[in-house]
Amino acid sequence: MAGGALGLASGATLGAVGSMIPCSQTGPGPTCVRWSAIGGGVIAATGGALLGAGDSNQLGDAALGAGIGLVAGAIGGMLIKSKAERFGWQDVAAVGLFGGAIGSAPAGSAIGFLSGSALGLAAWALFDDFKSPDLFGVALAGLAIGGIAEWLVRGIDAQSGDPEYQFNIPLRVGF
Amino acid sequence: MPSHRMTPDVAPGRSCPDVSEHTWYVPEAEGGQDRLNDWCRTVGPPVVSPVPTVNFGGLPSGDTLTVVSWNIDVGGGDVPAILETELGLACDGRSSRLAPGADHFVLLVQEAFRRSNDIPETPPGATIPRAVAEGVRPGERLDAVEVAARCGLSLVYVAAARNGREPNDGKREDKGVAILSTLPLENAFFIELPYEAARRVAASATVRDESGRRLRLANLHLISAAGPSRALTTGNGSRLRQGLAVADAVDQAEARDGPISTLLAGDFNTWSDRETTLRRLKEQFPDSPPPLEEGTHGAFPTDHILFRAGSGGVALLENSYARLNESYHSDHHPIQVRVHFAE
Asked: Where are the domains of chain A?
C-alpha cells in the first residue's frame, strides 16, 4: 500500500513535469500533461506496490530518497523564492515535490536525464526548428521516463526473487 | 485547466474595474478574483480618446490599413521614431501629418505605460511589481497619452499593473496595452485576463472605412511563465487559458455587435510557432497569415498577428505580414500586416 502510494505520487509528478514542455507543442496541451501524469502515476504505483510486497528494504530506500529529495527541492525552492518576485510558498512546495519524485528514483532519473540531454543536443544541432526550450523539454522528459521506469523495474525485480545482479570480481592481494 | 469563460459582470466584492464607464469582460471563474482586485486597484482608469485630434481624413473604400503590433518594453521603445520612420507620420501636435502615399495605421502597443498622478497612491496590501528596467536610449521618454497628444492620434489605453511603487520623475506610472491610430477608434472595450501569476489585460477597438466596413482589433499580452505550482495544477495551461479568454470575450462582443472582421495581435509570449495557445487560437482565426520565419524577441517568436475575415470585405494583403528589422531600442521587434478594405 505504502509502496503504491509513494510510486503514485512520484510517477504522477514525474509524468506531469516531464511532459509539460513536449505537450505544450501539441494541440491538446494541458490534456496531454494530465494523461501523462495519470500514465506515470499508474506505472510507478504498480511498480511501487510490487516493490512493497517483495522487498521492504528497497521500499525503505526509496522513501528515504524521496525524503532527501523533498528537503533538497524545498531548500532550492526557498533560494528561488528569496530572489524571484511572485514565487510563493506553494511554488516552494511544488519544487520540493519534484525533488522528492526524483529522490525516490534517482538512478533512473539521472540516466534518463543524461540520455534525454544527449538526444536533445543532437536534435538541437541537427534541426533549426528545435530550440533550446525543446532541448530542456527532452531532457526533462528523459528524466521522467527514467524515473518512472526505475519504479517499474525495481517492482518487477522484487517479485522475481532475484533482487539484484551480483558480479564476482577476482582480486589477489599480495604481501 | 481552469475555466477561461468571460463575463461582462464583475464578481461581487470586487472594487474594480469600474464597469460604469467602459465595457469590460472579466473572468467568470471564482479563482483569482481577490488577486486581480489587489492588482487592479493600484492602477489608474482606462483612457479612451476615440477621435484623432488631427483630421487625417477617412479610410477610402478599396484602401489599405497598416497594422503594427509592438511590445515597447515600457520606456525602452522609441514610439515617435517608429511612427515617423515606418508609418510616415510627422508628429507635430495639431500640425501632425501623414506622408503622401502613407497608409492609415493602427499601432497596437504592449507594455505601454502612462505617467500620471491620477494613478492612485499605493493602497495597503496592494500588489505592485518592480519597475521594468530600461536601458538608456536617445530621444524623449513619452508615455502613451503624450504620444497620442503629440502626434494627433486617437488612443485607447488600459493598465494591467503599476510600473514600480515609487514615482519616476515625480509621477506614478502604470503599464498595460494601448491602441493608437490615425482613424477614429470605436466600440472600445477591455478584457481582464484570468489571473495567472500576474494581472494582464487586453484592449479592443473597431475602425471602419468610409463605406462602413469594420475591422475589430484586439491587443493582448499573455503571461510569460506561471510558477511551478500553477504549472503543475493547470498542466502548464496558463497562456492557453488567457488566450482562450480573449477569444471568448471577442466572440461575446461579436455576438452583441454582429459579424465583423477581427484581428488579434500582441505579445503571446510563445517560444515556438507550434505552441498549443497558437494552435487553438488559429482554429478560431482561420485566416491568419503563416508564421514569421524570424524571432521577434531574440530567437523566439513571441509576437503574432491572427485574423478572421468574418463578415467579409476585409482581408489581409498577401505577403504583407512581416517583422520590422529595426527594434527601436525595445527588446522586441515590431511586426506588421496590411489590411485591405474592398471597394
From this structure: 2-165
Per-residue pLDDT tens over the stretch B229-259: 999 999 999 999 999 999 999 999 999 999 9
Domain count, chain B: 1
Taking an 8 Å cut-off on Cβ atoms, the answer to whether A28 and B276 are in contact is yes
pLDDT at A163 over 70: no
> What is the CB-side half-sphere exposure of residue B330 using CA atoms within 13 A?
29
Say if residues B92 and B153 touch (Cβ distance below 8 Å): no
Interface contacts A/B by beta carbons within 8 Å: 80
Asked if B236 and A91 come within 8 Å (Cβ–Cβ), the reply is: no
Angstrom distance (rounded) from CA B206 to CA B260: 9
- Per-residue pLDDT at A2 exceeds 60: yes
Burial of B255 (0-12, 13-18, 19+ CB in 10 A): exposed
Nearest residue of B to residue A36 by CA position? B235
Structure confidence at residue B338 (pLDDT)? 98
Residues of B with CB under 8 A from a CB of A: 1, 129-130, 197-198, 227-232, 234-237, 240, 271-272, 274-277, 279-280, 299-300
CATH number at residue B69: 3.60.10.10
Whether residues A13 and B227 touch (CB distance < 8 A) is answered with no
Nearest chain A alpha carbon to B278: A27
Is B11 within the bounds of a domain?
Answer: no
ipTM: 0.86
pLDDT of residue A162: 60
Q: Structural domain of residue B333, as residue ranges?
A: 24-341
Question: DSSP for A35-66?
Answer: HHHHHHHHHHHHHHHHHHHH-HHHHHHHHHHH
Tell me if A30 and B236 make a contact (CB, 8 A cut-off).
Answer: yes
Question: What's the full length of chain B, in residues?
Answer: 343
pLDDT at B271 over 70: yes
B18 assigned to some structural domain: no
Establish if B296 belongs to a structural domain: yes
Alpha carbon distance A143, B54 (integer Å) = 60
User: Quick check: is B320 in a domain?
Assistant: yes
**Facing residue for A133 by CB, picked from B129, B198, B271:** B271
Cell numbers placing B79: 514610439
CB contact under 8 Å between A33 and B236, yes or no, is: yes
Q: Which residue has the higher pLDDT, B126 or B87?
A: B87
* pLDDT tens per residue, range A75-109: 999 999 998 878 899 999 999 999 999 999 999 99
B25-39, B75-89, B173-187, range with the lowest pLDDT: B25-39
What would the grid cell of residue B71 be? 511590445
Q: Which helix (H) or strand (E) holds A98?
A: helix A89-104
pTM of the model: 0.92
A131 to B272: CB separation less than 8 angstroms, yes or no = yes
